[in-house]
Amino acid sequence: MFLALLTSLPTGNSTLRMRVWRALKGTGCGVLRDGVYVLPREAPQAAALSEAESEVKAAGGFAMTVELNFKTSAQIEYARGLFDRSKEYGALVARIGAAKAALPRLGKRRADTLIQRLRRSFSELVETDFYPGQARLQAKDAMTALERQGEKLSSGGEPHSSKRRVRRLDPEKYRNRLWATRSDLWVDRLACVWLIRRFIDKSAKFAWLDRPRDRPKRSLGFDFDGAEFTHIAGRVTFEVLLSSFGLDDDPALASIGSAVHFLDVGGIPVADARGLETILKGIKAKVQSDDEIVAEATRVFDLLYSAYAQKKSG
């Protein structure tokens, strides 16, 4: 079922005409004919039709909100076609493709701004897509690919997976150490810092490196090529640390490892991973220094670990 707003605006009031048109356009309504604006009855924006009706009447115009009950399937399909967003999604995917090609040439700040702008455009389009189909899925996939590329470019120096074997290590030899990793921390490194402080070296100190070759002497490197702990045989650094220190038999840590793996290198989707990613993005948008990011992320991983531990024990 659909709702329709029938209007006849005062001819001399162009300001009202423009204001009403912009308000209705923002709801994603379809135009059945001049002065007849349509929305699905169940659409969250449907209340805007009554608001526009009141505004037009207050200005001396005619307006009436009515229910439309179409008699044939062809009429219903025609009405649904008024909300076809395929062209808008197509245009957005083209913009995303252009952004993806330009991203390597942009600095981090400009790249982040561009990605955020496109994400906002996608979200706004979704809000008025009342009958989603394949076009939305394609745009969502394109947006996800762009965001993933942005993360890779901003993190810089992502390690290649080594073919060497993971060795079981004596935790006692890794106490009170200085640990070093790349600055501008993201999910794998943030999770590693939390794991090291909570389960491996509770007195650990950390150095954030602009370049891995600047690593301090006698420090333990992680999550960069040539580091003591890095990607090995398809496992991300967090998973390598779990295995190296005999922590991979903890189901809660293993669950966190699965989420970190998915967010860092892809693979099998993990239900909680996107939520974790969203929270970590919020932290990075809120604070500036890596120390502040670590402090905030540590609380997140503490809570995540507690939730997983409780779930496993239950």
Give a structural overview:
This protein is an alpha/beta fold and 314 residues long. It has 11 helices and 7 strands. The protein has helices at 14-27, 47-58, 73-81, 86-102, 108-127, 134-155, 187-200, 237-244, 251-265, 273-286, 290-313; strands at 2-8, 30-33, 36-40, 62-68, 178-182, 205-209, 220-221. It has a 4-stranded antiparallel beta sheet with strand order 2-3-1-4, with helices on one face.
C-alpha Rg, in Å?
A: 27 Å
Q: Specify the overall morphology.
A: elongated
Structural class: alpha/beta
Helix content: 40-55%
Assembly category: single chain
Beta-strand content estimate = 5-15%
Mean pLDDT: 90
Q: Give the strand tally.
A: 7
Q: How is the main sheet built? A: 4 strands, antiparallel
Order of helices and strands: EHEEHEHHHHEHEEHHHH
Distance linking N and C termini: 46 Å
Number of helices: 11
> How are the strands of the biggest sheet laid out side by side?
2-3-1-4
Give unreliable regions as ranges: none
Protein traits:
single chain; 314 residues; alpha/beta; 7 strands; 54% helix
Question: What's this, in brief?
Answer:
The protein has 314 residues and is an alpha/beta fold. Helix content is 54%, strand content 11%.
Write the topology of this structure.
Elements: E1 2-8, H1 14-27, E2 30-33, E3 36-40, H2 47-58, E4 62-68, H3 73-81, H4 86-102, H5 108-127, H6 134-155, E5 178-182, H7 187-200, E6 205-209, E7 220-221, H8 237-244, H9 251-265, H10 273-286, H11 290-313
Parallel strand pairs: 5-6, 5-7
Antiparallel strand pairs: 1-3, 1-4, 2-3
